[in-house]
Specification:
The N terminus is likely disordered. The chain is 37% helix and 15% strand. A 6-stranded parallel β-sheet has the order 2-5-1-6-7-8, with helices on both faces. A two-stranded parallel ribbon has the order 3-4. It is built from 9 helices and 8 strands. By secondary structure, it is of the alpha/beta class. α1 runs parallel beside α2 and α7 runs parallel beside α8. It binds adenosine-5'-diphosphate (ADP) and magnesium ion. The site of magnesium ion has 4 residues, from α1.
């Protein structure tokens, strides 16, 4: 994995620049699994960018476990609130056009509802959003990098199709290292750019966050690795979130 990253980070260098124009970068936020903190990172970056006066949009195109009565509690609602937009049906549809009620992987939820995720339409939606963006754009995936979307495609196939630099979010739980290194290897084998790895502290983990992040750094010397501690609820400000926002 060493030396095969996309940008050099030698400690003196300013942040690696992935996109062409600062503030216009589009990225895909993926993770090593569910609940690792993808939405938390996206919300944090949105707040950072808005605080800097940078235009930002975010999408959660595929959402499972969607309940229209509790939108404020799900990813769609959380992203809309961070973006300062209303939780109206129109806004919900703009952020999350592929909504499934079942709280399972999208392939299964789609099967249960007899309404599988339309993989072609999903990619067309994302490519359109990327080409029409007016500022930074974050697209949050769904589950881990190889969560099944339908009978034949995983999130990885979606990422390959959309072809954006990835922000990979992982935890600091025991076993996270194998998960994150496996994920990075798969992304690199598929020629996907990796903009950053966010090692997000897992509640109750006995593995120190800094050690986990340093190990990831040792295996990925050309990728920005950011350690994000557990933050008290409602604390959007943290240097780790600022560092990710700097990539946009
Ligand atoms: N660094 C953190 N500090 C505090 N709470 C966090 C942090 N990361 C995640 N959380 C919380 O943990 C839960 C799962 O995170 P979430 O971002 O929803 O994961 P994912 O999008 O990967 O499924 C959410 O309630 C979120 O607010
Ligand atoms: Mg999420």
């Amino acid at each position: 994995m060493r030396g095969r990253g996309t940008a050099h980070h030698n400690g003196m260098d300013p942040r690696p620049r992935i996109g062409s124009d600062a503030g216009m970068t589009a990225m895909f936020v993926t993770g090593t699994g569910n609940d690792v903190g993808k939405t938390f990172v996206v919300r944090g970056v949105i707040r950072q960018l808005r605080g800097r006066g940078v235009a930002v949009d975010a999408l959660k195109p595929v959402i499972t476990g969607f309940d229209a009565q509790t939108v404020h509690l799900n990813d769609t609602g959380r992203l809309l609130m961070a973006l300062g937009r209303a939780l109206t049906p129109r806004q919900i549809n703009a952020v999350s056009p592929f909504r499934l009620r079942g709280d399972f992987a999208p392939d299964h939820a789609g099967r249960v509802e007899g309404r599988p995720v339309d993989f072609k339409a999903l990619n067309a939606f994302c490519r359109n959003a990327v080409s029409r963006r007016k500022g930074a754009l974050l697209i949050e995936g769904c589950g881990g990098i190889m969560a099944p979307l339908d009978d034949r495609h995983t999130v990885l196939d979606w990422m390959i199709d959309v072809d954006l630099p990835a922000i990979l979010v992982t935890g600091s739980y025991a076993g996270a290292l194998s998960h994150v290194l496996t994920a990075l290897d798969v992304l690199e084998r598929n020629a996907l750019k990796i903009a950053a790895v966010v090692v997000n502290e897992t509640t109750g983990s006995t593995d120190p966050l800094a050690d986990t992040a340093n190990t990831v750094r040792r295996f990925t010397d050309a990728i920005e690795v950011v350690a994000l501690p557990r933050l008290p609820d409602g604390t959007p400000e943290h240097p780790a979130l600022a560092a990710v926002a700097d990539l946009m």
